[in-house]
Write a structure and sequence with these properties.
- This protein has 2 domains: about 150 residues, 3-Layer(aba) Sandwich (Rossmann fold); about 120 residues, Hypothetical Protein Tm841, Chain: A,domain 3 (2-Layer Sandwich), CATH 3.30.1180.
- It contains 10 helices and 13 strands.
- Strands 10-9-8-13-11-12 form a 6-stranded mixed β-sheet, sandwiched between helices. A 4-stranded parallel β-sheet has the order 2-1-6-7, sandwiched between helices. Strands 4-3-5 form a 3-stranded antiparallel β-sheet, covered by helices on one side.
Length: about 280
């Protein structure tokens, strides 16, 4: 029986890829006051931004319940004896700890291993994707873990913001705090290093920010796959994809929407590129 792969909704995997690879996605939660929504299930990205811009109550996020993981594990245990869970960075969320603890709540017998991706968005998604493809080829769980671990240093993101205020409010700003302060008319750019947010530059216009994301891709000697993610306005993402296609015509470029959980901590102006490859 093939190894089954589980990840969380922060991985931002396109739905068709989830179906194709047979990945189970556990949603985190977004709360507006007393209203709680499962990330990407009860609330679409478009609906989230509408509420964000028209609601006086600022949203907060929370990890999945242990029961949601345990229920998924038990369901998959009917089909396999081995499960690998790939989670958002443990330095950004408690999801990793919940995924580990939930294995003890299972009713069925099954080996469950949990891997900290040290990332988020499609940087996390690429690790889950690589693990799923390896599993679907018939590899053992130990082999799948090995491939996933070796993929972690091969994935990286760059993200352009309109403002870092949402990251600051959510306590996820990390070393990018250095970009706060005199940010008028500045488009900050961040990355994730060892699971935490770090500054990666700043530009004075959106156009220059997009150029910076494109130039980031050109620093790679070989690229296995790329992903471009955006929020409610896809124009910038479409433009970046078109620009990337002109140089990387043979490289798969996945289009993805930033989920409500990520959007809670980034605001509506996020544009992100994730790359799996070698420099």
């Amino acid at each position: 029986m093939p190894v089954k792969i589980v990840t969380d909704s922060v991985a931002d995997l396109p739905p068709q890829l989830v179906r194709e690879l047979g990945i189970t996605v556990i949603p985190l939660n977004v709360r507006f006051g007393e209203e709680v929504y499962r990330d990407g299930i009860d609330l679409t990205t478009e609906q989230f931004y509408d509420k964000l811009l028209n609601n006086r109550i600022l949203p907060v996020t929370s990890v999945p319940s242990p029961g949601s993981f345990a229920e998924a594990y038990d369901k998959l245990a009917k089909e396999t004896d081995e499960i690998l869970v790939v989670t958002i960075s443990s330095k950004l969320s408690g999801t990793y700890e919940v995924a580990v603890q939930s294995a003890g709540l299972m009713r069925r017998k099954c080996r469950v291993e949990v891997l900290d991706s040290k990332g988020g968005a499609m940087a996390e998604g690429f690790i889950a994707m690589k693990a799923a493809r390896t599993a679907n080829e018939g590899a053992t769980l130990d082999k799948v873990i090995d491939v996933a671990q070796k993929t972690i240093p091969r994935v990286e993101i760059r993200a352009a913001f309109d403002t870092l205020e949402y990251l600051r409010r959510g306590g996820r700003i990390g070393k990018a705090q250095a970009l706060m302060g005199s940010m008028l008319n500045i488009n900050p750019i961040i990355t994730l290093k060892d699971g935490v947010v770090e500054p990666a530059g700043r530009t004075r216009s959106r156009a220059k920010a997009i150029e910076r994301l494109y130039n980031f891709a050109t620093t790679y000697s070989s690229i296995e796959a790329m992903a471009v993610e955006d929020g409610p306005n896809p124009q910038d993402g479409d433009f970046l994809v078109e620009k990337l296609n002109s140089k990387f015509s043979k490289t798969p470029i996945y289009r993805s929407k930033i989920t409500p959980v990520i959007s809670t901590h980034t605001g509506p102006g996020l544009l992100l590129i994730a790359i799996m490859g070698d420099k």
